[in-house]
Amino acid sequence: MKIIPNTVKITLVLLGIVAVIWIVFGIAVVARLHPAFPVEPFFRWGIGSIAILAGLVMARLAVLLWKRKKFAWWLVLIGMSLFAMATFLDQIGWVDLLVLAITVVPIVLLIRDRQWFLQPGKPKIVECEEE
């Protein structure tokens, strides 16, 4: 049985969801599926590429966070804060509020579970005997 708090698992799942959201958003911008972005290739590819890169970096940081790398905790906290602020760069709709909630909850959980994430070493596995 692994000694991993449920809130840590929830945090990592939400980070994965955020990474997927940014990757899908980037692909939608590049593929001209998002109506609010300019048609000019320079801006479309620039914004799309940055969004895809941000999602990939967040996914990698989530893996490093799982391995309890201290620098990953700080970078995820900063990155998620930037993602939350990016939500306010245009008009706010219900989708933006949903993404904001999915972004803010991991920030709160990261701070709440910082002791677990900042412990050195990989998550411990405890063998338990069944009777």
Which helices and strands, and how do they pair?
Blueprint: H1 6-30, H2 41-66, H3 70-86, H4 94-112, H5 114-117
Helix pairs in contact: 1-2, 1-4, 2-3, 3-4
Task: Describe what is shown at a glance.
By secondary structure, the protein is mainly α. The chain has helices at 6-30, 41-66, 70-86, 94-112, 114-117.
Protein described:
- The chain contains five helices and no strands.
- The protein is mainly α and 131 residues long.
- It has one domain (6-117).
- The radius of gyration is 17 Å and the shape is elongated.
Question: Which features would summarize this protein structure in a list?
Answer:
131 residues, mainly alpha
How many helices? The count is 5
Oligomer: single chain
Write down the domain tally. 1
Largest beta-sheet details: none
> Which overall shape is indicated by the principal axes computed on the Cα atoms?
elongated
Query: Helical content, roughly?
Result: 55-70%
Tell me the total number of β-strands: 0
What is the arithmetic mean of pLDDT? 85
Strand fraction: under 5%
The arrangement of helices and strands along the chain is HHHHH
Structural class: mainly alpha
- Unreliably modeled segments: none
Q: Tell me the Rg in angstroms.
A: 17 Å
Distance between the termini: 15 Å
